[in-house]
Amino acid sequence: MLVPERPAGRFSDAWRRCVGAGRFDLALRSDYRDSLALVQQEIGFQYIRQHGLLSDGAGIYQPYTRGGSPGLAYTFTYVDQIVDAYLALGVRPFIELGFTPAALGSGPQTVFWWQGNVTPPASPAEWAALVRTTITHLIDRYGLDEVRTWPIEVWNEPDLDVFWPAGDQDDYHRLYELTACTVKDVDASLQVGGPALSPGADAEWLKRFSAFIEDRAVPIDFVSRHAYTSGPSQPVPFGTYQTLMPAATLLDQFAAPRQELAGTALAGLPVHITEFSSSYRPDNPIHDTAFHAAYLAPVVVAAGDLVDSFSYWTFSDVFEEAGVPASMFHGGFGLLTHRQIKKPTFHLYSFISRLGRDVLASGESFVVTRDPAGHIAILAWAPVDHTGRSFVDGHRVRLSVPVGPGSSAFIARSSVGEEAGNARAAWAAMGRPASPRPRQVDALREAAEPVRTYRSVPVAGGRVELDLVLGRHEVTLVEVSPVVDETPPWSDDARLFGRAG
Amino acid sequence: MLVPERPAGRFSDAWRRCVGAGRFDLALRSDYRDSLALVQQEIGFQYIRQHGLLSDGAGIYQPYTRGGSPGLAYTFTYVDQIVDAYLALGVRPFIELGFTPAALGSGPQTVFWWQGNVTPPASPAEWAALVRTTITHLIDRYGLDEVRTWPIEVWNEPDLDVFWPAGDQDDYHRLYELTACTVKDVDASLQVGGPALSPGADAEWLKRFSAFIEDRAVPIDFVSRHAYTSGPSQPVPFGTYQTLMPAATLLDQFAAPRQELAGTALAGLPVHITEFSSSYRPDNPIHDTAFHAAYLAPVVVAAGDLVDSFSYWTFSDVFEEAGVPASMFHGGFGLLTHRQIKKPTFHLYSFISRLGRDVLASGESFVVTRDPAGHIAILAWAPVDHTGRSFVDGHRVRLSVPVGPGSSAFIARSSVGEEAGNARAAWAAMGRPASPRPRQVDALREAAEPVRTYRSVPVAGGRVELDLVLGRHEVTLVEVSPVVDETPPWSDDARLFGRAG
Amino acid sequence: MLVPERPAGRFSDAWRRCVGAGRFDLALRSDYRDSLALVQQEIGFQYIRQHGLLSDGAGIYQPYTRGGSPGLAYTFTYVDQIVDAYLALGVRPFIELGFTPAALGSGPQTVFWWQGNVTPPASPAEWAALVRTTITHLIDRYGLDEVRTWPIEVWNEPDLDVFWPAGDQDDYHRLYELTACTVKDVDASLQVGGPALSPGADAEWLKRFSAFIEDRAVPIDFVSRHAYTSGPSQPVPFGTYQTLMPAATLLDQFAAPRQELAGTALAGLPVHITEFSSSYRPDNPIHDTAFHAAYLAPVVVAAGDLVDSFSYWTFSDVFEEAGVPASMFHGGFGLLTHRQIKKPTFHLYSFISRLGRDVLASGESFVVTRDPAGHIAILAWAPVDHTGRSFVDGHRVRLSVPVGPGSSAFIARSSVGEEAGNARAAWAAMGRPASPRPRQVDALREAAEPVRTYRSVPVAGGRVELDLVLGRHEVTLVEVSPVVDETPPWSDDARLFGRAG
Amino acid sequence: MLVPERPAGRFSDAWRRCVGAGRFDLALRSDYRDSLALVQQEIGFQYIRQHGLLSDGAGIYQPYTRGGSPGLAYTFTYVDQIVDAYLALGVRPFIELGFTPAALGSGPQTVFWWQGNVTPPASPAEWAALVRTTITHLIDRYGLDEVRTWPIEVWNEPDLDVFWPAGDQDDYHRLYELTACTVKDVDASLQVGGPALSPGADAEWLKRFSAFIEDRAVPIDFVSRHAYTSGPSQPVPFGTYQTLMPAATLLDQFAAPRQELAGTALAGLPVHITEFSSSYRPDNPIHDTAFHAAYLAPVVVAAGDLVDSFSYWTFSDVFEEAGVPASMFHGGFGLLTHRQIKKPTFHLYSFISRLGRDVLASGESFVVTRDPAGHIAILAWAPVDHTGRSFVDGHRVRLSVPVGPGSSAFIARSSVGEEAGNARAAWAAMGRPASPRPRQVDALREAAEPVRTYRSVPVAGGRVELDLVLGRHEVTLVEVSPVVDETPPWSDDARLFGRAG
């Protein structure tokens, strides 16, 4: 392909807007913090979203008895420690208001190994007070200018029994209205939204929600939903296998809210995909594979044109929805495993973080970008078969790239795939140790790094010709810089061993 | 007092043998790790003991179902992360085997906010397998030479209903025998012991235990019990007040096991006090006070002559037995608060860690030590009234200390007390903010530092005369070093402003 | 004094605009870097100025011979390492163009132990090429937007024989013109200036310079000079004593350029004091004293109204103009000694860095400031006698400070003086060890910290009454914050020891 | 080759005994310290040797005048900072006593860009006092037990005019005798030796030295010399090309002292090769190449059987003997360039540091080792042509390696060579930037890493069959560990995409 010299458009950075994480109080963990620091250094997300801010582990809602009378304390010991740490790491909370403190729940039903109570609040007034106190506290500590940049989402996947067992859609509408009005009553400039629908929600759900919002003039600043591509669970101990749909169905899911809301009062609102991945299971080994990066590559590259954010679920395997993970590689959602081993999908994101501001060209398996200083960065990937029945090896991408004057260009190529940057494969070769020894962890850390090559290529007519061959499940970043040749005239590698005598 | 030149004996370092901590999986927390690193750097403990190794939060015991049949996996994901971190920080586990995984319990009773199941194992065989697998795993990973240095204690305070609700002493005997035999069957060189009695146990409990051990020739390598001095709880929300007994009663409690076991088969065994403090409540504000350091000073100085270890309960306020702490200063057990603010008792330990190898003299309110290089280090403290009804101010300690030849000595004095090194007092002056702002945390961190003074004193006859005056609840470290005067002859501070013209 | 509630004006931050340093290549040193990192963290300067960018140690100018013919290479190996490090530490170069590479000098004369050649360039064309190449390289690497914020000063103290031995003022004028025109020819938006006059220059020097500039329409963006208050040297080995003038004479020196240039073409230009201190000697022990901080306090507080910057000479004792320093405290210029022991003048700057944006009031020995969040910060100092013949002890500052509603305020006070924050005094008590042992360095580090006290005071009528008593040579920072009382009703320190039985 | 199961002998760790460095005071540099920390972490040398301890840059010898009379101060400001840093990094000084302080020299001759005075001391008494004071100071600070482990070498290459311009061999003998006797007079347990001969010394030099020692019964604890293989210099600006001799001539040079001293009084002494490399020039690009690692591999593997130490000259390019290096890759001696880019020879050492305690087998191009835990580590290298006229590609090493029971082994292979781990090649492709931009430095850092591959291989009869193919100038580390297969029975990668529907 003859890559044009003029940009076709901007490369959206919606991909970095948000990333998901395990429950709120897991942010107190050392591994979580180290992982987030690494992710921020090499990728750099802007917001982080997670469940459980209002659940018991975070400890906000603390009833007590004194002199026989009940009292209530709001405690921000952990919340402040966590949000302080986020801001120090350059990431902000994308607040999810949920779930219910056990003492405020209307029933005993819980979700997850960590037992988040998901019943509707027994007392709307106490819920509203909890929301108001929490948001007010955050503003007092961090300032309104800061907090008004944090989206506030009401609950999680209320269309699913597992998250909203005792209620129905109308109950969610009431919860949403109460919560949104409470938030706006604290300050009208705060951003509130929902409903964080699951991918399984039928198309009418959102329309009914929109009608409700419009009827009652309820505040709303954004619409949110989730997207996954996996089929029914095929459980094994500590794991799940599932079929997958083509990756492009993710883009369809991303696009759905705008389509469903066309013509409604919510039509113009920002749309946030507050969770997405292939499988929605925290124990599906597909997350750990090289396939996964190649599968998601075209989605992450293209989705910024469809939505305002799409939040990869999640940045780290420090995550306990299914209990304490039984093995280093256990199919967790994370970009990183425990102890911060990078998975191939981590590199997909780190590669994308090095793309330039402008898109020069894009195709089925590549995108070519340029930054204002003239550096070219290309992401390319091998097409994948979502059924795993066949695979592509030796996929070729031929590009004629404009690099300007000069006689040569420096090419740096970084790749992950089945053969390189694939810690899971090294771990399998080790015998799949559940809890690797320190020297094994060191080897996994090294095995997780991309393979990198460097070379000089000639420039002809202001262009370099690239013929990229991609291995199975390969995702590759190719960076092209014009060479400024500083070689002095006396430098001569032919003389390295001395002139002949 | 004329301090003699010849040592009266060695200063025991039993005080640094062990320290307590919150439940096992809290060691995954960032604040816990940072706190432990600080404690190790400025104090340096050798072992660390905590509850919950076998409880669900640490995740070892994981039953599953496959094809309709039950299975069981042992998972060391978290255990390995934690023990790896301990060894990297220079501290080793003092293993407490407890409590029961919920799925292995014989009933639903739990202890603490974090709901540790404390019922006897439903299956002795499965308990033995759990113990065997855990110890074997540790040996595989860390080596037998390492693990045989780790004491292994069976259960915690089995004389109390709260920790052993369904059982009686005979039940504990059976658990002890099964566990100890299992440990020794893994390797006979491992150290096993118990019974980690509470201070409230009657004197006959230990004798019955001893008789049982002797009768059945059960393995035992050490005897353990706990010691506290507080009276009945006077609860308030998120806190407890209590009367205290004199600190010397701690020494009586430390001495009790040897007295009670005199003449029995267990008479010669090492005795470990595996928990001690004033109050046994994690929410008694006395722990945070300057009083507390002065109260415990004579105990920590003297106890090394009575027992093989006495483990301060605990090094950090990262501790959730009563829930998520509702305030920065909440009466937690820790030497450090959340976010690592040093309490006065932290400094008691850091001062003691700077004492020398040999004791030259000691008294009611001081000890004088010397290290092989000749540096003198003195710990002194103001006597306290455990009822708080009166207090000592201006307590004097007069010492004539041998420092050898030379004409002057350099004195460095570090003190904490009501007036200095008292972060709780600064926090009270701030209005007791539950979750201090960053600049308040900075101020608390500074307020927590000892006041330090430096001066030169004359040496006469190889001695310096010290007249130490101690304020209320003061604990002070005085370090004395002979001065080697390197002042050149032309140095003259009288000339600092130039000679007169 | 009744401090008014409305600001009297802004507190200028010209004090932080620039700081001095040892010769350019000393910035490769580890101690220098650690010191700069500490200074940036606790104070935060914006620019750094030093000699020797073009001298041989920095290695830019490298003549060579090839095939019998001379050639010339410009090498930025060290320059880039240093400037990279500066920008990473948040500080920018205030470029001083000097001195002459030895191979470009017109003679052998050097200045300092490190032998900087200070003769006029033998070839004006080569000098211009050196300047052009250096500035162009910096722009290529750091960008024009960055480099145009860096002032570029031509030479250093050309009125002194020691720095300009072979020339006279006209020679400097020619050097200035050549250099300034060369810089502007690279880019007209760059800032160039001079003449970095010594304090001893007569008042006519600057007028002649101004006339020359005007006559020939030479570019100039700022005027610079230096200021010191010390009298003739009274040398001793490795040291110098000197008389001092009153500190206020520094303010006179700062004000002089504007006065001397009034009515000339240079009248409106920014004025930078590119070096100031008491003594101009790198071995006068006055720099290390508590006196020094109190002496300079009124200067640093007031000078921002007179000039655009005044650069303390220097931030660190890593400085070799008089050779390798023979002792830890040797009268170096630094805010920090070798190994980063803080001198009292360091704290003067760190205290000032905590003052607020607005000045509420000021007096002979204090300034009261407030930041937008309402925190009050007061700097006060004991007046000093510059002859050292008398001293002030117990100086009182009484202030009635507005803090707004509330019933109490939190006061944090930090002080240095003869008794506290005085590492030199502790070092003297140690016997003035030339190269202290590690444990002595630790003690010095602690001795260098300010004494800090914390208390709560009542607020009456929206004000707190402060009666500050200052010891000899004390400089003190008092921070006042309104208390938000969060004490719960059940909190009662009277119950700490339990209710009476 | 059928590698035997029983060790053929121990693998000597003489290779890690010592490493060389630039002049003493360069150890104050930040880049030097960071480089040493990296080298210690990934390789771990025991001693470090360098010139210039007594030269002016280190600042020990400081004459002064007072009241018209001369005086002399010894200053250890820098020495202590440097040695403190070494010990903190786990490395000890191999002391070289040299050169002469300028003020103590008998003439003006200097060596190197940094102008070390190399004339014999004008006053033997002052030289002896300097040596005595320096050694005594080190003992006072670090303890005799420590300092007696530090070899003390007298001067450097006294057989060369450039280092010993005014003297002859007899003069050196006198210097040696005076110095050695002075050292032994401080403490007889100190180790002193010499003569640090250059490779060009004729065979009689050492015999004459030995005769002198024997005649006068001068103390000596070790013999030292240097070894290089390069031919005459072919200078270009900022660089030198040279022919090379075969690497095996290094082993001949290492062996020479024992041969030459056979039958003399010095016959049984330890022999230290206190400098070795290919070229003795700090600007020969051969040092930076992949060739260099392969060239030296057989030397570093074999030399431990010949001598007690052989010190690679040097660990870092922070080195100024030929001035400020004009380019990132300039042919410096270092294992690391400026800014710590790893050269291939760095990896040769890091690979060797991972070899096991016992040698199982060795050959022309490999060595097979095993550690006590049973891990096999193999170093192999492609044979090289020292004339560069031909090269080996596809060199094969076939090994049948014993790994014990089990059905598979995990193989980790790390390689550097022309294609990988070759930062100089990447730099050449960039256009040889003299001072690379930050993003280029990042790319160089990545390009400097070895390529690493991981796989599982079958074990048959307790052995794995390795068929290693080595590219041009490749050096490779192959680590073989038996696999303990923990794969659970339900794990099945064939199910990754879900069962067929």
TrEMBL record, chains A, B, C, D:
Annotated GO MF terms: hydrolase activity, hydrolyzing O-glycosyl compounds
Keywords: Glycosidase, Hydrolase
Entry coiled-coil feature ranges: none
Pfam families: Glyco_hydro_39
InterPro entries registered for this protein in UniProt: GH, GH39_cat, Glyco_hydro_39, Glycosyl_Hydrolase_39
GO-annotated biological processes: carbohydrate metabolic process
Superkingdom in the source lineage: Bacteria
Gene3D superfamilies xref list: Glycosidases (3.20.20.80), Glycosyl hydrolase domain, family 39 (2.60.40.1500)
Record-annotated Glycosyl hydrolases family 39 N-terminal catalytic domain positions: 3-461
Residues at the active site: 157
Matches recorded under PANTHER family: ALPHA-L-IDURONIDASE, BETA-XYLOSIDASE-LIKE PROTEIN-RELATED
Family: Belongs to the glycosyl hydrolase 39 family.
The protein's name in its UniProt record: Beta-xylosidase
Species classification: Bacteria, Bacillati, Actinomycetota, Actinomycetes, Micromonosporales
